[in-house]
Amino acid sequence: MSVAPHADATTDPLAVRGRVHSLETFGTVDGPGTRLVVFCQGCPLRCAYCHNPDTWAFAGPDGAGPGDETSVREILGVFERNRPFYRRGGITATGGEPMAQADFVAALFAAAHAAPAGRIHTCLDTSGATYETAGAERFSALLDECDLVLLDIKASDPALHRRLCGLSATHALALGDELARRGVPVVVRHVVVPGLTDGEEEVAGVGRIIGDWDNVIGLDLLPYHTMGRVKYERLGIAYPLEGVPAMDAARCRELRRVALRARVERRRERGR
Ligand code: SF4
User: Fold this and answer.
1) CA-based Rg of the chain, rounded to a whole angstrom?
2) Full set of structural domains in the chain with CATH
3) Tens digit of pLDDT for each residue in 156-214?
4) Which residues contact 7 (CB under 8 A, 6 or more apart)?
5) Binding site membership of 48 for ligand 1 (Cβ less than 6 Å)
6) CB–CB of 120/146 below 8 Å?
7) This model's pTM is above 0.90
8) What's the gap in Å between 46 CA and the centre of ligand 1?
9) Does the C-beta of 72 come closer than 6 Å to ligand 1?
């Protein structure tokens, strides 16, 4: 599912091109500080609560694919034009699924680290859906360049995970294991949907998972909201969570405490 970089990219890393849905120049929710957020085009998952269905497609009817082919140079140019605003921020690659274009994002992050005007902080926001232990070396260059990873754990219950997004959790868990082995700082994110992922046992399961990873520096329980619904209407896609209300933010905070208690218990079992 990886998109190959263009041939001239072998000699000029700044010429590596990826398929980009859009850029958000002043993002404040995907990593620390104010960030340039790169929405990569294409995602193999179909999360019921996804609010970016316009980033799903990898290829259009002509095979050329949606999204714009954008070079590392162009993206860094946008960053440099606004550099003063990003002083405590950096660049985040999200999507869609950025690991589906691992070579492109690796080149972008490497160039960000080597930027002549000063090193740029890099953050990868991923579901881990394309990560495979069998082909882990494909992702090594990218993981080498991540200062922070925002890792989605869609559900701790395996059957619920598959029902929610159409794929097993094994990829995300294998990526989490690898990030822990490498000691890459990780913030785990879990969307809490009423009636689906808001059970105490479900969120305690998330807590137990992160109790195995000593590199986790944060846990975000994100309350489901219905703002993505309008995009489904525009695209003519049936909305999978029709009738499901937005998640109560206060209950979400309580559930986060449940998850953190389970994490502490798990760490205690491990002697941490
Ligand atoms: S991984 Fe993200 S972009 Fe892909 S379907 Fe799920 S929420 Fe949407």
Assistant:
1) 18
2) 7-191 (3.20.20.70)
3) 999 999 999 999 999 999 999 999 999 999 999 999 999 999 999 999 999 999 999 99
4) none
5) no
6) no
7) yes
8) 6
9) no
